[in-house]
């Protein structure tokens, strides 16, 4: 039995009434009105065309990652991946990218099969999840098609809708490959939006992140802020007073008020890293429960406790979200980074409504995306200018304990991300956590080189050393990042910090 096309579906395929062309400022794309239902969009930078609903607004602000088409009920994203210089291929992209859809019980796959798009064997998949009560007009119906231009170059069209999807295959059938005849336009930089802060938070923010501010170092020392005795000994050894320390928390505990007050008494600002996972028992991420309102009272109480300490907090929510080791990553949520954005904004807004003015929001992707697919690019997770006070960078010299890892200099790590971030973001930059392992190279020499090279990244005003250990599955130290691992490491750090203070 042949499937009937809706009127809109037929228009998408056969629409022929050509109306005036609208071109983007950089002439990287054009939009042609075909009829009252349909526009034809052509992307000259990436070499494709597609028919979309005429009432859709087009977002090309990050065309290097995706082009987005949006109306009240539907969003269509078009992504492009080029794996020419990577190990990935169309097969690994398709198989690994869709694997998590079958592992998350919240998602239900209703159809998965191969189809022809533009004469190319492509992969089609439909899936759904339950609606979320705290997302207005939640788009919980999905359809996705992955189209290989070559084995190494792949286009992906993802539609999501608040209603069951009926026209996706008609839309996909209009996708055509064209020649790439335009350079990729420069992406638009974000804006710094000044918002009300408490007197203490504003003073810390201005003193730390102003253009003329000197570079400062912070530290993650596992026993602080619960106990400051070891950190005080360490500061004496290094002859340096770290102004910022790090504290991690999951959803198994409330706001750590006593520890935060202890930090305040010791003149330490805490980079408070909240990860919306429960680590006890089933070790689940609770994004869904939060966006269904089940944790409203938790966050209202949390916000009031945070405000009550009357002291600045660098609030880092769900960091490294573009890494598949994070259960709140889009990899585990239907390739839909918007769920991360909705969660981030929801918590931000709850804080705002409850009068929190001492939290400085730090948004912090990982240096590399895992998987390194366009729909998992860090900018897909960007919550918006008004929600981000500081942008965090994270990059480690992991050493070579594990297969596939290599010893990397500080410059090699941060050249790759700093200049891109500096062009893309106008907000202040900080290194939220970094360090060097001792496995695979000369750690003291790495530290000496780091102190020499870090000044070239002049927009970084705060860098936080992660002084801990990553353990392998057998309980052996795999990556030793400790800042006091040996006398030679301590000497290298102390000498570098002495130069910083001058």
UniProtKB/TrEMBL annotation:
<feature type="domain" description="GH26">
    <location>
        <begin position="199"/>
        <end position="493"/>
    </location>
</feature>
<dbReference type="GO" id="GO:0006080">
    <property type="term" value="P:substituted mannan metabolic process"/>
</dbReference>
<feature type="signal peptide">
    <location>
        <begin position="1"/>
        <end position="25"/>
    </location>
</feature>
<feature type="active site" description="Nucleophile">
    <location>
        <position position="433"/>
    </location>
</feature>
<protein>
    <submittedName>
        <fullName>Glycosyl hydrolase family 26</fullName>
    </submittedName>
</protein>
<dbReference type="InterPro" id="IPR017853">
    <property type="entry name" value="GH"/>
</dbReference>
<comment type="similarity">
    <text>Belongs to the glycosyl hydrolase 26 family.</text>
</comment>
<keyword id="KW-0378">Hydrolase</keyword>
<dbReference type="InterPro" id="IPR000805">
    <property type="entry name" value="Glyco_hydro_26"/>
</dbReference>
<keyword id="KW-0326">Glycosidase</keyword>
<keyword id="KW-0732">Signal</keyword>
<dbReference type="InterPro" id="IPR022790">
    <property type="entry name" value="GH26_dom"/>
</dbReference>
<dbReference type="GO" id="GO:0016985">
    <property type="term" value="F:mannan endo-1,4-beta-mannosidase activity"/>
</dbReference>
<dbReference type="Pfam" id="PF02156">
    <property type="entry name" value="Glyco_hydro_26"/>
</dbReference>
<feature type="active site" description="Proton donor">
    <location>
        <position position="320"/>
    </location>
</feature>
């Amino acid at each position: 039995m042949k499937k009937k096309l809706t009127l809109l579906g037929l228009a998408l395929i056969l629409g022929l009434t050509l109306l005036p062309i609208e071109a983007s400022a950089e002439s990287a794309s054009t939009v042609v009105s075909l009829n009252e239902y349909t526009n034809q969009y052509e992307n000259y930078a990436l070499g494709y065309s597609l028919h979309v609903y005429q009432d859709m607004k087009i977002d090309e602000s990050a065309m290097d990652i995706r082009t987005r088409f949006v109306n009240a009920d539907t969003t269509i994203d078009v992504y492009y991946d080029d794996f020419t210089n990577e190990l990935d291929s169309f097969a690994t992209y398709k198989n690994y990218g869709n694997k998590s859809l079958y592992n998350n019980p919240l998602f239900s796959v209703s159809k998965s099969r191969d189809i022809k798009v533009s004469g190319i064997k492509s992969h089609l998949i439909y899936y759904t999840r339950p609606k979320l009560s705290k997302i207005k007009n939640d788009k919980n119906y999905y359809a996705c098609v992955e189209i290989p231009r070559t084995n190494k170059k792949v286009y992906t069209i993802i539609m999501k809708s608040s209603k069951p999807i009926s026209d996706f295959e008609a839309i996909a059938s209009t996708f055509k490959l064209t020649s790439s005849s335009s350079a990729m336009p420069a992406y638009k930089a974000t804006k710094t939006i000044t918002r009300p802060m408490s007197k203490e938070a504003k003073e810390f923010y201005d003193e730390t992140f102003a253009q003329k501010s000197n570079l400062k170092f912070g530290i993650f020392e596992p026993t602080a802020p619960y106990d400051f005795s070891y950190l005080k000994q360490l500061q004496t050894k290094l002859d340096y007073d770290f102004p910022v320390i790090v504290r991690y928390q999951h959803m198994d505990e409330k706001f750590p008020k006593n520890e935060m007050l202890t930090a305040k008494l010791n003149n330490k600002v805490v980079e408070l890293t909240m990860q919306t996972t429960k680590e006890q028992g089933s070790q689940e991420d609770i994004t869904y429960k939060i966006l269904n309102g089940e944790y409203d009272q938790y966050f209202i109480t949390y916000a009031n406790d945070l405000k009550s300490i009357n002291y600045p907090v660098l609030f880092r929510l769900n960091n490294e979200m573009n890494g598949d080791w994070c259960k709140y990553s889009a990899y585990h949520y239907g390739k839909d980074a918007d769920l991360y954005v909705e969660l981030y904004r929801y918590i931000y807004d709850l804080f705002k409504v409850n009068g929190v003015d001492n939290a400085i929001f730090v948004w912090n992707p990982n240096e590399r995306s895992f998987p390194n697919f366009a729909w998992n690019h860090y900018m897909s997770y960007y919550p918006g200018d008004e929600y981000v006070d500081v942008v965090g960078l994270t990059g480690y010299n992991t050493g070579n304990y594990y297969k596939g890892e290599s010893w990397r200099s500080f410059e090699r790590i941060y050249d790759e991300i700093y200049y891109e971030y500096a062009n893309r973001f106008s907000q202040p930059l900080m290194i939220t956590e970094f360090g060097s392992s001792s496995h695979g190279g000369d750690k003291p020499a790495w530290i000496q080189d780091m102190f020499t090279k870090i000044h070239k990244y002049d927009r970084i005003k705060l860098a936080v050393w992660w002084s801990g250990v990553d353990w392998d599955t057998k309980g052996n130290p795999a990556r030793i990042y400790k800042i006091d691992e040996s006398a030679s490491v301590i000497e290298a750090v102390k000498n570098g910090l002495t130069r910083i203070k001058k």
